[in-house]
UniProtKB/TrEMBL annotation:
<keyword id="KW-0175">Coiled coil</keyword>
<dbReference type="GO" id="GO:0005730">
    <property type="term" value="C:nucleolus"/>
</dbReference>
<comment type="similarity">
    <text>Belongs to the SPT2 family.</text>
</comment>
<dbReference type="GO" id="GO:0003677">
    <property type="term" value="F:DNA binding"/>
</dbReference>
<dbReference type="GO" id="GO:0006360">
    <property type="term" value="P:transcription by RNA polymerase I"/>
</dbReference>
<protein>
    <submittedName>
        <fullName>Protein SPT2 homolog</fullName>
    </submittedName>
</protein>
<dbReference type="GO" id="GO:0042393">
    <property type="term" value="F:histone binding"/>
</dbReference>
<dbReference type="GO" id="GO:0006334">
    <property type="term" value="P:nucleosome assembly"/>
</dbReference>
<dbReference type="InterPro" id="IPR013256">
    <property type="entry name" value="Chromatin_SPT2"/>
</dbReference>
<feature type="region of interest" description="Disordered">
    <location>
        <begin position="59"/>
        <end position="94"/>
    </location>
</feature>
<dbReference type="Pfam" id="PF08243">
    <property type="entry name" value="SPT2"/>
</dbReference>
Length: 94
């Protein structure tokens, strides 16, 4: 009789949870009392307008940074082209 075999039978759920806890350090009991939906997620007009204002301000800041970055890229590209042109002119002289 050969003792080497693979047991494809169902594992006990507690055993699987135990291994998950050991491997990942996850304890499902920690989150047992937390609800998935939060019923107090209500916003009034003031809260919405405050968030809209914040979003607008951050969006404008990001747009300005992007515009500055694009301008710097164009400037570098132009500088690189000028340097290349100068190098070609010097090369033609000699």
């Amino acid at each position: 009789m050969d003792d080497d075999f693979i047991d494809d039978g169902p594992m006990e759920q507690n055993s699987v949870s135990k291994y998950i806890k050991e491997i990942f350090g996850y304890d499902k009991r920690k989150y047992r009392d937390e609800d998935d939906d939060v019923s107090n997620m209500e916003a009034n007009f003031h809260d919405i307008m405050k968030e809209e204002s914040r979003s607008l301000r951050l969006g404008m800041k990001e747009d300005l940074e992007d515009m500055k970055d694009e301008e710097a890229r164009k400037k570098r590209r132009k500088q690189k082209q000028l340097e290349k042109l100068k190098a070609e002119r010097i090369k033609k002289r000699y």
